[in-house]
Amino acid sequence: MPEGHTVHRLARAFGDLFSGQRLAATSPQGRFAAGAALLDGQVLVASEAWGKQLFLGFAAPSDAPDGAVQDRTDDPGRQPTRWLRVHLGLYGAWTFAGDGSAAVVHAIGAPRRRVGERETVPAPEPGVGPVAGPDDAWSPPPPRGAVRVRLVGEHAVADLTGPTACEVVTGDEKRAVEARLGPDPIREPAPGDPDPRGVFVTAVRRSRSPVGLLLMNQDVVAGVGNIYRAESLFRARLDPLRPGRDVPADVLRDLWDDLVVLMRDGTRTGAIVTTRPEDRDAGTARTLVAGSPVQAGRGRARVRQNTDGAPDAVPADAAFYVYHRDGLPCRVCGTTVVRSELSGRSLYRCPSCQV
To answer: Among 9, 22, 52, 118, which one carries the catalytic annotation?
Structure first.
């Protein structure tokens, strides 16, 4: 499932590609036909993320002085009248294509075939891409798969497949969804909002549930998924099974501050990197996994990152302390990293560092 930094990158992508444009909205699959009809011909004036929830704000086109309808709006203060709320869940993804006039990320979301918890979907088949229409005008490629909603702008198209939630909501309904969510480490609090760190600390310390379970509860903290859960707990040297009420407040404040740094960095780069530079070469020596010598990072599910192959990027097999490193030596103490299950999700930890 995409983590919070991915959804914030989605919000940024929509702002960069479609902000101020009048969009054509359809539902090639047909399951969102009524919702698409409400958005068709509307102008995208806002794109926001809160945790794993994406909100795209639409307003009616403005009337030009001659009575014609404007295709664009340059009013940054324009308020949306409708919002498209999307939660990608386990299998949802947005796939993009463009006319070549601007850089367009291919896709953000779940893979077509789930392998680990990665951010991108496979590249399109050869020959699939933008095509020329009448008079050499750009027209988008045909939809691929069961596309719930398609948004077409001046230079790009976005297709949504497989979401857990996809609905048109009012401003009040959007605020009601946000009120049920915990604070988001990536978002800057608005003036007058309660201190998000304090809200997080209070929510954890009033619960008997394990802190490793609370970090995955979107009512406690929004946007944290299995990778950030495992890595932030290791960096805090916290046992995931420790009851929330038993974790000191100062430890939780430091944990929140660390999540802010890690998740905002993920939003900026498109990759989750939690290891400190001095630890990245540790734990990579040959070791025993299931009784056979293997090289760390080989022969196991690999987490793909947007920065794979980029110059100077941290390699994926050096990016984590414990996530997907069960059976390998801890980068700090050398103890074998273990994997267990907590509430149906894999839990990774070092039994020596996290006590």
So the answer is: 52
Q: Whole-angstrom Cα distance, residue 221 to residue 217? A: 6
174 assigned to active site:
no
- Is-catalytic flag, 2? yes
The pLDDT score that the predictor gives to residue 286 is 36
Out of 31, 112, 264, 345, the active site residue is: 345
The last residue of one of the domains, among 179, 213, 246, is 179
Residue 294 has pLDDT above 70, yes or no: no
pTM of the model: 0.84
Buried b or exposed e, range 151-189, using 16+ CB within 10 angstroms = bbbbbbbbbbbbbeebebbeeeebeebbeebbbbbbbee
CA dihedral 205, 206, 208, 209 (to 10 degrees): -70
Here the tokens at position 195 are 């201190």
Least confident of 94-98, 105-109, 165-169, 212-216: 105-109
Distance separating alpha carbons of residues 31 and 39, to the nearest angstrom: 15
Q: Is residue 220 part of a domain?
A: yes
Domain span at residue 316?
A: 196-349
Looking up residue 341, the CATH number of its domain turns out to be 1.10.8.50
Q: Is 339 a catalytic residue?
A: no
Whether 184 is covered by a domain: the verdict is no
State how many domains the chain has: 2
User: Which residue is catalytic, options 3, 117, 119, 231?
Assistant: 3
Do the beta carbons of residue 314 and residue 275 sit within 8 Å?
yes
Q: Are residues 238 and 307 in the same domain?
A: yes
Identify whether residues 272 and 161 lie together within a single domain. no
